[in-house]
Amino acid sequence: MKRVFPTHPTNDPVIENPWQRLREFTDARIGLGRAGVSVPTKHLLAFQLAHAQAIDAVHTPLNIDGLIENLVSQSWCPKGQPLRLHSRAEHRDMYLQRPDYGRLLNKASEQILEDHAYLCDDKYDLAFVIVDGLSALAIEENIAPFLGELIPALTSGPEPWRIAPLCFVEQGRVAIGDHIGQLLNAKCVVVLVGERPGLSSPDSMGLYLTWGPKVGKTDAYRNCISNIRPAGLNYPEAGRKARYLLNEARTKQLSGVQLKDRTDETALEHDNDNHNFLISKK
């Protein structure tokens, strides 16, 4: 069959996709259109930029000195000199190749915490552990405004939390919080870590809460709040969820799969409804 070509030139070689209107509701790459059989150049370049930003987020070191200087100047910062620690992963390549090394402190950091515990008689309810993880950018962008929402609420309530000096960890993973909490003899530990960057979220921070931290605990004993950032879960909402989980953990003396986040009003309404949703109402 003979192919018929248009008799007049087209001004725009890009054929738009009718789904492009849905893109205002999501960061997903949908409705991009096409140029011939290819993705339009502007979308290809945007994808390559996002990929480069994700790589940078993984490999850029955390500016701990600047971070400590910023946080200790805040009125809500817990008392005591911040503790600067390091995992057993000596450098970034080792961190990426040996995840197990990122879950434990090196000997020097263990000694720092043991000395602190020996010199300080304070009994801590809670320890915040700030970890670079897989995105230092996430920590640098989100840690100060989020803690500024959370800590004042924890220390000013009817039952204020006794909070340990802030702990900063290089080349760390989530489970390293258990090691730190155990050495500090803290009742609860909250790990704030840079999450694995996506192609639209290189700045996503995660929160992991463990009651009774101890080396060897699995993820089943942790509660997670993910995607804390302005374009994801905003700071007031993340702080509200964290306060609820912390207060419930202290009341029930547990965390993990046995502790449910019931901050969503619809979940509470559903719990009060004895009707079985599998059976239609007559």
From TrEMBL:
Adenosylcob(III)alamin binds at V174, E195, C224. Its main location: other. GO terms for molecular function: cobalamin binding; ethanolamine ammonia-lyase activity. InterPro entries: EutC, EutC_C, EutC_N. Its EC number is 4.3.1.7. One of its GO terms (biological process) is ethanolamine catabolic process. Pfam families: EutC. GO terms for cellular component: ethanolamine ammonia-lyase complex; ethanolamine degradation polyhedral organelle. Pathway: Amine and polyamine degradation; ethanolamine degradation. It is an enzyme of class 4 (lyase). It catalyses: ethanolamine = acetaldehyde + NH4(+). Binds between the large and small subunits. It is found in: Bacterial microcompartment. Its cofactor is adenosylcob(III)alamin. Keywords: Bacterial microcompartment, Cobalamin, Cobalt, Lyase. Gene3D superfamilies: Ethanolamine ammonia-lyase light chain (EutC) (3.40.50.11240), Ethanolamine ammonia-lyase light chain (EutC), N-terminal domain (1.10.30.40). The basic unit is a heterodimer which dimerizes to form tetramers. The heterotetramers trimerize; 6 large subunits form a core ring with 6 small subunits projecting outwards. Catalyzes the deamination of various vicinal amino-alcohols to oxo compounds. Allows this organism to utilize ethanolamine as the sole source of nitrogen and carbon in the presence of external vitamin B12. Belongs to the EutC family. This is Ethanolamine ammonia-lyase small subunit. The lineage of its organism: Bacteria, Pseudomonadati, Pseudomonadota, Gammaproteobacteria, Oceanospirillales.
